[in-house]
Amino acid sequence: MVKICCIGAGYVGGPTMAVIALKCPSIEVAVVDISVTRIAAWNSDQLPIYEPGLEDVVKQCRGRNLFFSTDVEEHVSEADIIFVSVNTPTKTRGLGAGKAADLTYWESAARMIADVSKSNKIVVEKSTVPVKTAEAIEKILTHNSKGINYQILSNPEFLAEGTAIEDLFNPDRVLIGGRETPEGRKAVQALKEVYANWVPEDRIITTNLWSAELSKLAANAFLAQRISSVNAISALCEATGANVAEVAFAVGKDTRIGPKFLNASVGFGGSCFQKDILNLVYICECNGLPEVANYWKQVIKINDYQKSRFVNRVVSSMFNTIAGKKIAVLGFAFKKDTGDTRETPAIDVCKGLLGDKAKISIYDPQVTEDQIQRDLAMNKFDWDHPLHLQPMSPTAVKEVSVTWDAYEATRGAHGVCILTEWDEFRKLDYAKIYENMQKPAFVFDGRNVVDPEKLREIGFMVYSIGKPLDPWLKDMPAVAA
Fold it and tell me: Could you name the active-site residues (predicted)?
């Protein structure tokens, strides 16, 4: 019986291993983590992450051939294949701070594997890692090998939150990179056989180690670049009276471009896009390629510009002051169907509004008050480091309240900012919301979920990203003076 162990029970490790266990009943899968609370949650009825379909998969396999444990060393020493999906946050200090990946957790995992292993192992990089990580890991393992043979593979995950289980059941591709040696090829084959239980052969791509590592960073950079491209065009649409939805639709009809990832918005979020591009930038700089680095930096710059442009619209529309005004924020997660707030544009927008002394009331169907307060109190990049290294229980930001109902959030507000495209925000009774707001009542739609014309008929002043401006907004400077 093949035994698989995965170090790290987070967004990647948990769902990936659950699906492997479901699709490969003859393989025993253990997910290990040093966090006692996280493992307890995986073993309970309230899983630590929300992902459509995940609960069913876990319940079918848990206790049969899927185990969640804090006994890291025992499971690692028994495993044939070890997946490592620990965090690789952006460094906050030292060499490469703000850009380079912090490989502390990776390195300690590698050293622990070397310490406890008594038999040959295949070690698989699952977390997003910078190119050449495999080489560093390989050195640590071989220099501590005690005669044990280690093969390092790169098997990057390409999951999208909200559809992770579907992505795992039916992936576009599974990428496995390994050394081009007989042992390396044998290790690639072993991992390929695991996936071949449910993934068609032609979708399992094998490459060398560096290609696999770089493919992940490149894929995320290309996706983020599409969002920044359409967001850049959205600013031009507002300035010229064009409609970004019409432009994006026309552009997306070109089969070479395609329609996906062309929705203009307040900006991209999520744990990977910014981190991976910063990482790509850093690798380019380290390899003496400043032109390439600057090219990719622009993707993040446009994303930051889009968020600050949104805040400026809010402030300038409301007579250039929002001090003391209640502003409702609908949606805090970085996209719908996930409770994940990592790098969500809502953080920067809320901080911008708070910086102008607004009072904000936030409603999101999946994000807890505790999480929102923590996000608003944290420094950039802190979220990706373990909880005990984050600022201690944040002093609740006094000007922020969190409600469990959109109508409650908007009651008595001067403006509403829609920052996540949850389906329920399309179905709200906006006439009722209008009645309970201060007048003039503003809606700032950062996700283009509402019909601006319908809202204008109710009486709202509406700002939709990349859509023709309300006459009211045309008279207002686009940038708060």
Answer: 272
For the stretch 59-108, pLDDT in tens is 999 999 999 999 999 999 999 999 999 888 888 888 888 888 888 888 99
Give the CA count within 13 Å in the CB-facing half-sphere of 323: 2
**pLDDT the model gives residue 20:** 98
pLDDT tens-digit readout, 312-324: 999 999 999 999 9
Secondary structure element (H or E) that encloses residue 217, with its range: helix 209-240
Determine if residue 151 is labeled as part of a ligand binding site.
Answer: no
In a shared domain, residues 68 and 140:
yes
- Residue partners of 106: CB distance under 8 A and separation at least 6: 84, 86, 88, 127, 129, 133, 137
Last residue of a domain, one of 165, 199, 233: 199
342 known member of a binding site? yes
Domain residue limits at 345: 221-475
Could you give the number of structural domains in the chain?
Answer: 2
Q: Which residues are the active-site residues?
A: 272
Query: What 3-state class would DSSP assign to 142?
Result: helix
In residues, how long is the chain? 481
Q: Are residues 325 and 365 in the same domain?
A: yes
10 is in an annotated binding site: yes
Average pLDDT, the chain: 92
Contacts of 345 (CB under 8 A, 6+ apart): 265, 266, 267, 268, 269, 303, 306, 307, 310, 334, 419, 446
Q: Which residue has the tokens 């995320």?
A: 220
- For residues 124 and 191, is the Cβ–Cβ distance under 8 A? yes
Q: Does one domain contain both 178 and 311?
A: no
Query: Can you tell me whether residue 478 is helix, strand or coil?
Result: coil
| 33 annotated as belonging to a binding site for a ligand | yes
CA distances from 278 to 102, 104, 183 (A): 12, 18, 33
Does any domain span residue 208?
A: no
